[in-house]
């Protein structure tokens, strides 16, 4: 047996959670001529006598990490609040313990003002996905997330439902022609898109961003891996919506989900590392390291985050514009909302920084799109402005299986059967994105009735996703 060593096995050896396990797993990925048993034996020896490995060509970094950790003192770290405020939670009985525990830790940060957990929540890095955290003048890079400004964008066309079924081949052709997917993938040469976001002076002035313009340009108008998608579906307005000025009926619509691509991921990685270097939190809270917005570093990240959000929006705008032209359609309504971001907002009469990691803004009257899965409906919603939820709602159904578990437990036959049963055509996507890997969107929506009103229902029909199993959200 030569299966990969995992973090749980290292913890059973006595390794502490956190950075040390990451170092060990990176060493293990190279194996360096050792089989599994030999590597585990070495890890045990480094744990017990790290001083013997300080000069070792393979294990020295791990040994130094153990020695440094052994010499850490409580006074070296920022102290967590032992009596934090409670956080609001919606659909708590459907939320895994790991996400709840992460939220409990986030509430202990000395900068935390309030928190809420959405019904699609599941465990992430630092703040759980589906976690909302309001802080006082502090920004948490991992509270924003790796895919900065990831968003949903919707175009409702003046195309009746019947036209879609009569012209499925045309919709499929245009979907393939005007989208590109996958982590690291982008456009080259004359196929590159252009957008005013690339004219931002930050690409010349910002000390870190100025090196990322070529990456941003090459991936402009493309979509990421993992759960990112571009799909056609049927949008049903059971009643006319006077605010959007759309009559009752069923319309063809385009829904997209993606973020700031490699540009945003690079920004996130850079400033997360900086935050961990300057904000020394105990191991349990290490991934919640924050930057003070009164510092140059805090302002640097804030500016970079906002540009990444603008860039993500530009990617969606390009896709929707291409599709509108290709179809020769009139757009009746456009709605866009983002998550994996931080906003300056007023909460309980004070200005706070609201982090929504995998959560949708749902202030009073604010429009949003909450998708289900490739076979489950999504919903166009209008926020109710619930203060206990920090004006937020879920950003989707949320996973009930990890990607690894989904690949191990779902077969291609099962996935093809459910797609056929729901009349969905799929281009790309691996088993990690199978519909069964997600929670029941109807249960999620039932748990947040006090947060949003449903305006219309979106039923997916033609879905394109990356087929490389990559992840950027």
Task: Show the helix and strand layout.
Elements lengths: L6 H7 L5 H12 L5 H13 L11 H11 L17 E2 L7 H10 L5 E11 L6 E7 L2 E2 L1 H4 L6 E10 H6 L1 H10 L24 H4 L7 H7 L9 E9 L11 E10 L2 H18 L12 E2 L3 H32 L3 E8 L2 E7 L2 E8 L1 E3 L5 E4 L7 E6 L8 E3 L8 H7 L2 H10 L3 E3 L13 H6 L5 E14 L8
Parallel strand pairs: 1-2, 16-17
Antiparallel strand pairs: 2-3, 3-11, 4-8, 5-7, 5-9, 6-7, 6-17, 10-11, 12-15, 13-14, 14-17
Helix pairs in contact: 2-4, 11-12
Structure description:
Strands 5, 6, 7, 9, 13, 14, 16 and 17 form an 8-stranded mixed beta sheet that branches. By secondary structure, the protein is of the alpha+beta class. Mean pLDDT is 92; it is low at 469-473. Strand 1 (88-89), helix 5 and strand 2 form a beta-alpha-beta unit. Helix content is 33%, strand content 23%. The radius of gyration is 23 Å and the shape is globular. The chain is built from 15 helices and 17 strands. It has helices at 7-13, 19-30, 36-48, 60-70, 97-106, 141-144, 161-166, 168-177, 202-205, 213-219, 261-278, 296-327, 403-409, 412-421, 441-446, and strands spanning 88-89, 112-122, 129-135, 138-139, 151-160, 229-237, 249-258, 291-292, 331-338, 341-347, 350-357, 359-361, 367-370, 378-383, 392-394, 425-427, 452-465.
